[in-house]
Amino acid sequence: MAEISTIARPYAVAAFKLAKEQKALAKWSEMLGFATAVLSDAQMKAFVQDPNVVSSDLEATFLKVCGDKLNTNGQNLIKTLVEYGRLSILPAVTSAFEELKAQDEGTLDAQIIAAAKPSAAEIKDLVKKLEAKFGKKIEATVSVDEEIIGGIKIIVGDTVIDASVKGQLQNLAYSLSA
Amino acid sequence: MQLSTSEISELIKSRLENFSVSSEARTQGTVISVTDGIVRIHGLSNVMSGEMIEFPGNTFGLALNLERDSVGAVVLGDYEHITEGDICKCTGRILEVPVGPELIGRVVNALGQPIDGKGPVNAKMTDKIEKVAPGVIARKSVSQPVQTGLKSVDSMVPVGRGQRELIIGDRQTGKTAVAVDAIINQKGQNMTCVYVAIGQKASTIANVVRKLEENGAMAYTIVVAAAASDSAALQFLAPYAGCTMGEYFRDRGEDALIVYDDLTKQAIAYRQISLLLRRPPGREAYPGDVFYIHSRLLERAARVNEEYVEKFTEGKIKGKTGSLTALPVIETAAGDVSAFVPTNVISITDGQIFLETDLFNAGIRPAINAGISVSRVGGAAQTKVIKKLGGGVRLALAQYRELAAFAQFASDLDEATRKQLDRGRMFTELMKQAQYSPLSVSNMAISLLAANKGYLDDVPTNKVLAFESALHGFMSSKYKKLMEGIESSKDLSGDNEKAVEAAIQDFKATNAY
Q1: Mapping DSSP to helix (H, G, I), strand (E, B) and coil, where does residue B326 land?
Q2: What is the share, in percent, of chain B residues with pLDDT greater than 70?
């Protein structure tokens, strides 16, 4: 069984290449975001999953709901997805597309978790260091979590830099019990 | 469990001293699904094949499948507490087990944790369970014998130090008995033994351990147990863990013997893991690399030369060769050696000891089929005296089998044929040996000499074993010096041979059997 992200990748890559050619990355991002939002509606979800709905009806209804928010290319993507019975993977296509877009723009999303709210200067300093480490522009989101006791934890993609007191205590616990 | 407080405090102190507070970057992933001990993980972009993955609750897994968007890992131990969405981390380490002399006399699981209730192992070192076997340059030819103490094995299919000799046969043919007897006979032979039990009943394993204890064999034996109730992952890993423990001795210029009991179960455990990982099945539903799991394991059994040992120990041990002898066990179904796993392992090993149900039921125990059992390298390593005297056994048995088939049709046979049949019958009887009673080289030599020189020809077949044991008793009480001489030189000089013959005649005159 292939993973959903594996199935979604060719669609996302196709959409990304087309968007790049047309220099319409922002528009595509917006379209995909909107279509995903439409799909996440409970009523729509039930409709998509209903086995009694004919694909032509599904296609027409979905496009009607989206209205003029989708251009012809966007509509074609939806039509293709419906034709292959893959409309449900649209959220995965969107996230894969956003990943490609971020990669292209050279930006990385970083999640900074701190025990106490860091000052703006501290964040700026941290982002600068992260940018040097990863060689890309960092878009940081900062959140406060008292659970980590002290220090900070940074999550960039699937890389984690754990400098929190909680993480250190956990490591100590493992090294003692190992 | 008894623990001394100072020991624990010291342990904790050293661990606290060595604990470094650092924040290194590690990759993490999210659990997508947990099915029958197999976890699929999204993320972990830097994971290595065979790397340990850390799950919540101090549980570890082994990354086996690296796919484009996911990683397939097998959990070592309980997996019920792992749920979808859990975060798991790379550790950057390959699975390691404790190694060293501290393990001797202990029963451990596939991860090297003690399961015999005798407290912590306190091993000073750990080592990776998957290692590359020594290359051609590091090796030396097999030239020293492993005495199994079984007449039929030592005379017909001799095993050398560093050899891989397969023990193959149906269920209930005495495969484990041959292996356990070989371990018991290593007392005082400078050999550390590792017994790896894979997929056996816990009660069977406990029985083997008890027998080893009773015979004083646990003083030089490590038992690695992955019982049938343990997870498939542990059953798959146990042979590699045991091999690493044995390699510790090989690499330090010592000799070790490892028994894998049995590799069929390991292949079945690996098949289970592979199918759950959705790898394509092949012949008998085994995955494509089932040959490789056995070849890479058995290649590690080797005799290494002095230079390798010296280099490995950084000059501390000079002029000594090390060896790891492997006795893998394979169980066949209805004597079918052309099944997938048996053919694979037969082709990997340096010979096989073939055990048969018919022989076993006919009372010929060990039930070794002399016709198809071979040792491809052991001849060069066979003890001199056994080589000198045991050469005739194989021939006599082969001729006997050939004639026995014909003799069924003819009622009256000529004298020569009848004599040959009698001789074959006598040798078949002589090759019988009770369990847990290995013979010393000198005793074995006496028995073989008596048979070769015709001193057993006038002994009734059903009295052969009684004659043998009485002869051994007689020799050890009356001709102690002579026996000790044979035992230490492992050879039989012309004078000694005459002395032994005279002694046997002396014994026969007493009629004590």
Answers
A1: strand
A2: 95
B70 touches chain A (CB under 8 A): yes
Alpha helix (H) residue ranges in chain A: 4-22, 25-40, 42-49, 55-66, 72-83, 90-105, 120-134, 165-177
CB atoms within 10 A of CB B197: 28
**B44·A161 Cβ contact <8 A:** no
Burial class (CB in 10 A: 0-12, 13-18, 19+), B13: exposed
Cis amide leading into B101 (omega within 30):
no
**Residue carrying the six token digits 């070192």:** B125
Min mean pLDDT across A112-121, B185-194, B310-319 is at A112-121
Q: How far is B43 from chain A (nearest CA, A)?
A: 6
The pLDDT of residue B3 is above 80: no
In this prediction, residue B262 carries a pLDDT of 92
User: Could you tell me the pLDDT band of residue B15, with boundaries at 50, 70 and 90?
Assistant: low
Burial class (CB in 10 A: 0-12, 13-18, 19+), B252: middle
The answer for B 71-90 residues in CB contact with A (under 8 A) is 89
**Cβ contacts of residue B279 below 8 Å, gap of 6+?**
B65, B287, B288
Residue A48: is its pLDDT beyond 90?
A: no
- How far is residue B166's CA from residue B368's CA, in Å, rounded to a whole number? 12
Q: Is the pTM of this model over 0.80?
A: yes
Q: Is the pLDDT at B17 greater than 80, yes or no? A: no
Q: Tell me whether residue B376 is one of the annotated catalytic residues.
A: yes
ipTM above 0.90, yes or no: no
Supply the pLDDT for residue B23. 65
Q: Using CB atoms, pick whichever of B27, B32, B40 lies closest to residue A159.
A: B27
On whether the CB atoms of residues B327 and B179 are closer than 8 A, the answer is: yes
Please judge whether B19 and A177 are an interchain contact, meaning their C-beta atoms are less than 8 angstroms apart: no
B187/A contact by beta carbon, under 8 A: no
Nearest to A175 among B15, B45, B67 (CB): B15
**The predicted structure's pLDDT at residue B477:** 92
Q: What is the rounded average pLDDT of the residues B166-189?
A: 96
A158/B43 CB distance under 8 A: yes
Closest CA to B129 of B182, B178, B76: B76
Three-state SS for A69-108 is HCCHHHHHHHHHHHHCCCHHHHHHHHHHHHHHHHHHHCEE
Distance CA A175, CA A161 (A): 19
